[in-house]
Design goal:
It contains eleven helices and ten strands. It is an alpha/beta fold. It has two domains: 146 residues, Rossmann fold, CATH 3.40.50.1860; 114 residues, 3-Layer(aba) Sandwich (Rossmann fold). Helix 11 links the parallel strand 9 and strand 10. The longest helix has 16 residues.
């Protein structure tokens, strides 16, 4: 079996492009449609009801593109909306970033002590801790909010003195002492672009778990299990949609995607209910 329909990916903004990049690398023959709801970011400051409504609207728009799967490339939306979306879209597969990241963290740890860094909203919500404990009840989870990493990532300041100073400030309390985590989950889609700096600060013995890469593996497995993989020899197409500021989307998105995105190739859309 095969299915040449595109995979739909959405985020509150631009950070989810790290997931898109991982999907592009893991699934080169697949067509991808990425929607960044840049007009209403960040989702992390909104109520669960509002986030679910926004996620539903984003998904509805992607469904108009005939997608075969939905990937929620947003930690906040994954935490609060994956249940309602999974139920509403059956049998269409819906995959978020939290479960794959938690599973990879549990698989990587040797000591059972797992660190999670994310935005303040994701840390306070505790979705990663719940997902980790569901898989490994005896795991010890230490979390730290690292909000400035988002700004650094979007400015392209992913290495150098400023990025390293921020990483030391955030991570030193988490890794102080003998019982520090041996595994660190990057629980925000912005953070993979800072992975090299984070690794420099925490040391080579700490395993970094990139939720973007682990989500791509989960998508790859889901396609194989359901016989939904594309059957084509050429490279799949990538389509970009944004709800505001296509120029900024292209400029910042290129940092996360690892290649130039032209503003003229970003389609401005309105996903709000009419």
């Amino acid at each position: 079996m095969s299915d040449n329909r595109p995979i739909g990916v959405f985020d509150s903004g631009i950070g989810g492009i790290t997931v898109l990049k991982a999907l592009r690398a893991a699934l080169p023959h697949e067509d991808l449609v990425y929607l960044g709801d840049t007009a209403r970011l960040p989702y992390g400051t909104k109520s669960p009801e509002t986030v679910t409504a926004y996620a539903t609207q984003a998904t509805k728009h992607l469904m108009e593109h005939g997608v075969k799967m939905i990937v929620i490339a947003c930690n906040t939306a994954s935490a609060v909306a994956i249940g309602p979306l999974t139920e509403a879209l059956k049998p269409l597969p819906v995959i978020g970033v939290i479960e794959p990241g938690a599973k990879a963290g549990v698989g990587a740890t040797r000591s059972g002590h797992i660190g999670v860094i994310a935005t303040e909203a994701t840390v306070k919500g505790g979705a990663y801790a719940r997902a980790i404990h569901a898989l490994k009840p005896d795991a010890f989870v230490s979390q730290a909010p690292c909000g400035l990493f988002v700004t650094l990532a979007e400015e392209g300041w992913v290495s150098g003195d400023v990025a390293e100073a921020a990483a030391k400030r955030y991570l030193a309390p988490l890794f102080r002492g003998k019982n520090a985590p041996d595994t660190l989950v990057l629980g925000c889609t912005h953070f993979p672009v800072l992975a090299r700096t984070i690794k420099k600060v925490v040391g080579k013995d700490v395993k970094l778990v990139d939720s973007a890469a682990t989500t791509a593996k989960a998508v790859q497995a889901a396609l194989a299990d359901r016989g939904l993989g594309a059957k084509r020899r050429g490279k799949g197409k990538t389509r970009f949609l944004a709800t505001d500021s296509t120029e900024r989307f292209a400029r910042v998105g290129g940092i996360f995607f690892g290649e130039i995105i032209r503003a003229k190739d970003v389609e401005l859309v309105d996903i709000r209910p009419s």
